[in-house]
Design a protein that fits this description.
- The structure holds two protein chains of two kinds.
- Chain A is of the alpha+beta class.
- Helix content of chain A is 25%, strand content 35%.
- Chain A is built from ten helices and 19 strands.
- In chain A, the strands form four sheets. In chain A, strands 6-7-8-3-9-10 form a six-stranded mixed sheet, sandwiched between helices. A five-stranded antiparallel sheet of chain A has the order 13-12-11-14-19. In chain A, strands 2-1-4-5 form a four-stranded antiparallel sheet, with helices on one face.
- In chain A, helix 6 links the parallel strand 7 and strand 8.
- In chain A, helix 4 packs across helix 5.
- Chain B is mainly α.
- In chain B, 74% of the residues lie in helices and 1% in strands.
- A two-stranded antiparallel sheet of chain B has the order 1-2.
- The chains are: A alpha+beta, B mainly alpha.
- At the A-B interface, helix 3 of A face helix 11 and helix 12 of B.
Chain lengths: 362, 306
């Protein structure tokens, strides 16, 4: 099972009647990588996955898998296999027949296909349950069977539609580790749709963040975390505070901006015209609850909420035009000098903790 | 606060609460009391009549009256007569043919409604359209076939005018064909409804999963949809089989008296005041139908649908 296909999506759109679900997106998913489509519901991530799988027609554009253009091929001819959100196991068949289903459709002899299916179930450590029906299994077990059924077709790419959303939190974390391990072992391309940032960060080689049918950023988790491309990505991933204002000056690779409330901030970057709108992101875990040495790297605000999270404390501050400027302080730092709701606090950060956010290239 | 207030009622209401407690029946009696209306209805209108039929079937009779007795003669006459056997065979033949036709038509109508109509509103509208004929009585719907199929009816006159046939087709009305046609017409909806119900419950992602596994349309139908529709088919089959087995009016009207069914035989016996013979016949029919229903339930597990 070493064959893995690169997936090339070329200006693909999906139009339902008068609404456009996917706006001409282009993306290359390298072969053998784990790719997560991430975004809020209705952002077009599931439509994109279903177009790769062939369960949704492509309104315009092309999808290439390996060396074949699969745009007009039926699902089974594409070399992809899909795992459905609710697993879609056949309730009237036992596990062996569920897994052997695609072989049966191909006309493989009964003995042979059942033997192969059992082997696949063994790989998933599900062979003790081989004669059970799906309804007799737990969520995690059903997922393994669904994986076995998808993998028995020996696909070049496995497409997973919110595979972990039906599981409880503990199982979610365990199954996600299993998915990652499986992907490493099989070496095939996994495309995984999720709305959980944590899941995407934990699993992906490439995270594709979508909003409103457009790709906001497609990059490695580290890059998405450290350098979110747009204000949407920064807000959605939740690790950055976003401040919005207008550029007032630009010098020596440092931009100065002013928020509508009057404060000015600096950020490393250039190439923005004076007066143009600008968003900057500031790492929530790098903001300190102390007076800033430099006026442009901090502001004074009022604490609106404090959440204790064990190792860290999440403090929400109002100020500088932001309703929920978040500070993640370590518990030691916080209890050293605690603050309460309604307190006036000074916040500060370093120039390297602020990133310039771009606009979406529409 | 609210709970505290409730547990300490004011003296005025407190008295009433205590009174109610004094009249409280033991829980067992309450359960029996609650089920009493249903027991009464079922007892009076279901168990009692069956019991009476069972008792009367052992009575003696002549042209003038019924005489309480314990004779097995009625059963011996019923089971020993070749007319009975022939009639049963005829009824079974109708049942099998009508069952096969209603299942086939019913499945495809339900399939069309469930999978080819996209909006739920349209599905409901079309489903209600299916039930429109049921706003008129069984007999009216049956009789309305007569001007269509008759010797100078719509079908014959149209065909003759178009020059397709030289003379009217005789077997359209008052024939087995007419009986089966009317029975299928009357009973197909009893098949459509439960099958439509089961088809609507099939998760659409199962069909996608089958397609993802490379199944063709027919393979999906055969390997996924039909197996999952089995409980609905079974429930519809029970309706159709029991209705056709017990039918006498359709057979009488549509065959013009040239064909017989078990229920029609019973009706004739009753019109000759041979109540005990009819009762014995009814008991036999009841047993046969119960066996058929048991056989259907043996093949398909319908518990999930109930």
């Amino acid at each position: 099972m070493t064959k893995a296909a690169e997936i090339d999506i070329v200006s693909v759109s999906k139009i339902y009647g008068s609404t456009t679900a996917v706006h001409s997106i282009s993306l290359k998913i390298p072969s053998g990588s784990y790719c997560c489509f991430l975004g809020p519901s209705g952002c077009g991530k599931t439509s994109t996955l279903r177009m790769i799988a062939g369960h949704e027609t492509i309104s315009s554009g092309d999808i290439r898998l390996g060396n074949t253009v699969v745009t007009d091929l039926p699902p089974a001819k594409r070399g992809t296999a899909m795992m459905f959100q609710s697993y879609a196991l056949f309730p009237h068949l036992d596990l062996i027949d569920n897994v052997a289903f695609s072989l049966k459709m191909k006309g493989v002899e009964k003995e042979e296909r059942r033997a192969k299916a059992l082997e696949m179930l063994k790989l998933m450590q599900m062979e003790p349950y081989a004669n059970r029906r799906p309804a007799q299994l737990s969520g995690g077990q059903q997922q393994r069977v669904a994986l076995a059924r998808a993998l028995i077709t020996d696909p070049e790419a496995l497409l997973l539609d919110e595979p972990l959303s039906a599981l409880d939190p503990f199982l979610k974390i365990r199954m996600r580790a299993e998915l990652k391990k499986l992907q490493k072992n099989l070496g095939i391309t996994f495309v995984h749709v999720t709305h959980s940032q944590e899941e995407a960060m934990a699993l992906a080689d490439i995270i594709v963040i979508m909003s409103d049918g457009r790709i906001e950023q497609a990059a490695s988790p580290r890059e998405v975390f450290e350098r979110p491309a747009t204000a949407f990505v920064a807000r959605f991933m939740g690790d950055h505070n976003v401040l919005t204002g207008r550029v007032i000056s630009s010098a020596d690779g440092v931009l100065t901006l002013q928020v509508p409330e009057g404060q000015t901030f600096t950020v490393a970057g250039e190439g923005r015209e004076e007066g143009s709108p600008i968003d900057i992101g500031i790492r929530t875990d790098r903001v300190r609850l102390r007076e800033s040495g430099e006026k442009t790297l901090g502001f004074n605000g009022v604490v609106s909420n404090v959440e204790y999270r064990g190792a860290s404390v999440k403090i929400t501050v109002m100020g500088a035009g932001s309703e929920d400027f978040t500070v993640i302080a370590s518990d030691a730092d916080y209890f050293d000098k605690p603050v309460a709701v309604g307190d006036a606090v000074s916040l500060s950060w370093g120039l390297e903790d602020a990133v310039l956010l771009g606009a979406v290239a529409a | 606060m609210a709970t505290i207030a409730e547990s300490k009622p004011t003296p005025a209401t407190g008295g009433r609460v205590r009174n109610a407690k004094a009249f409280r029946l033991p829980p067992r009696a309450i359960s029996y009391l609650q089920s009493a209306p249903l027991i009464a209805i079922l007892g009076f209108f279901f168990l009692l009549p069956i019991l009476m039929i069972l008792i009367v079937s052992f009575w003696d009779y002549d042209f003038a009256g019924l005489y309480p007795d314990f004779l097995t003669l009625n059963y011996e006459e019923t089971l020993g007569s070749w007319v009975t056997w022939k009639t049963y065979l005829n009824t079974l033949k109708y049942t099998v043919v009508v069952w096969a036709l209603t299942t086939f038509i019913g499945f495809w109508v339900a399939y069309f409604l469930a999978f080819h109509i996209r909006t739920t509103t349209m599905q409901m509208v079309l489903f209600l359209v299916c039930t429109v004929p049921f706003l008129t009585s069984n007999i009216i719907r049956m009789i309305s076939w007569i001007p269509v199929l008759g010797r100078n009816g719509l079908v014959n006159s149209t065909l003759i005018e178009m020059g397709i046939i030289p003379a009217p087709i005789e077997w359209l009305l008052y024939s087995e064909f007419a009986v089966i046609l009317a029975m299928v017409h009357l009973n197909t909806l009893f098949m459509v409804t439960p099958i439509f119900n089961t088809l609507m419950r099939i998760d659409k992602s199962l069909i996608e999963a089958a397609r993802d596994a490379g199944a063709t349309g027919w393979q999906i139908l055969w390997n996924v949809i039909i197996p999952l529709a089995k409980p609905g088919i079974a429930i519809g089959s029970i309706f159709v089989v029991t209705l056709v087995m017990a039918d006498f009016s359709t057979v009488q009207v549509m065959s013009g008296g040239q064909s017989a069914s078990v229920a029609l035989m019973m009706r004739n016996q009753m019109s000759l005041l041979q109540y005990p013979a009819a009762a014995a016949n009814a008991v036999v029919l009841l047993i046969v139908v119960l066996l058929m229903v048991a056989a259907i339930l043996r093949v398909v597990d319908i518990r999930k649908e109930l």
